[in-house]
Amino acid sequence: MTRKLILDLDTGIDDALAIAYALGSPEAELIGITTTYGNVLVEDSARNSLAVLDLLGAPHVPVYPGLPHALARDGFEVLEISAFIHGRNGVGDVALTPSPRAAEGTSAVDFIIEASRTHGEDLVYVPTGPLTNLAAALEKDPGLAQRLTVVLMGGALTVSGNVSPWSEANISQDPEAADAVLRSGVSATMVGLDVTLQTLLTYEHTRRWRDLGTAAGTFLADMTDYYIRAYETTAPGLGGCGLHDPLAVGVAVDPSLVTMLPINLAVDLAGPTRGRTIGDVARLSAPRTSRAAVAVDTERFLAEFMSRITALARGR
C-alpha cells in the first residue's frame, strides 16, 4: 500500500532532509507540504520548501500556507539559537535557487481537512514543527480526529528536552496546540528526542552526497555539514547531527522502525514544566489513541535513509 503523506514543515535543514526522504521512499507519495513557523518564518518555510522540491525533481508537489504563529500569541520571531543551528535562511546559509512557483491559495488548515476526506486511512500527516495548523484544523472540523493518522516529530518522554530540562523545541513553540492535538483522540505517534538523538549523521555520510557531483548532492552535503558544525557547538559529545524530521517520515512509512509505548499523552501548560510531554493521568484507563516511540532500529533506519536520499540525489 502506498502511503499518501502530507509534511507540515518549518523548513530548516532536517525538514529539507525529510522532504528528500519522503521523495526517495517508494512506499510513499508526497501529496503536499503545509508550512509552519519555527526554524524560519512561515513565508520562508514556503519559499524553502518550493525550492527544495524543485531541486529534487518534484515541482508537482503543492505547498500550502499555514498559520504564522502560536494560537495564544500575536506574532513570532525566529530565535537566535534556531538561526544558529539552521542558518539565517533556514538551510545552512547555502544558496538555493528560488522556485518560480508560489504557495497555493488554499490554506494549510483547509488542505488537511480536504485531504483527510479524500484519502482516508491511506493518509498520514507528518508535522515536524509546532502543531498549530493541526490544532486549528481539529477545531474547525472535530471529526478530523477520527479520520487522520498523525506521526509527529516533537516531545521527549524518557529524556530531557532541548530548550529546557522538560520541553522539546517543537512542542515549546505552541504547547496549547500540542496539548489540544494529543487530547483530541486523533491517532498520534510521537517521534521525540527519545529516538531522534539516536539517529545521527556524520561528515562521512555527507561526503557520499558530495562525491556524487550533482547539484542536489552538493546542496544536501553543504547544508547538512552546516548542521553538523552547529551540533559540534550545541551538543559536542553527540557525534553528529540528529535526524529528527527524517525519522518521523521514516516511521510514517514504516512503523516497525521504532518500538512504541501506547500511552495517552498530554502537555503541561503552566509552571516550570510548561511544554513537557507526559502521560495524561486523566486518561490512564481510557483507550490509547497515542503512542510514544521509545526505541529505534538505528542501523536499519540510517541504511535506508542514506540509500534513498543518495539515489534521489544521484539523479539530480
Helix % is: 40-55%
Q: How much strand?
A: 15-25%
Low-confidence stretches: none
Classify the oligomer: single chain
Q: Strand sequence of the main sheet, in spatial order?
A: 3-2-1-4-5-6-12-9
* Cα radius of gyration in angstroms: 18 Å
Straight-line N-to-C gap: 27 Å
Describe the protein in words.
With 316 residues, the protein is α/β, with parallel strands linked by helices. The chain is built from 13 helices and twelve strands. It has helices spanning 13-23, 42-55, 80-86, 108-119, 132-140, 144-147, 169-173, 175-183, 193-196, 203-210, 215-234, 244-253, 298-314; strands at residues 3-9, 28-35, 63-64, 123-127, 149-153, 187-191, 200-201, 241-242, 258-262, 265-267, 277-279, 290-296. It has an eight-stranded mixed sheet, with helices on both faces. Strands 7-8 form a two-stranded antiparallel ribbon. Strand 1 (3-9), helix 1 and strand 2 (28-35) form a beta-alpha-beta unit. It starts with a strand and ends with a helix.
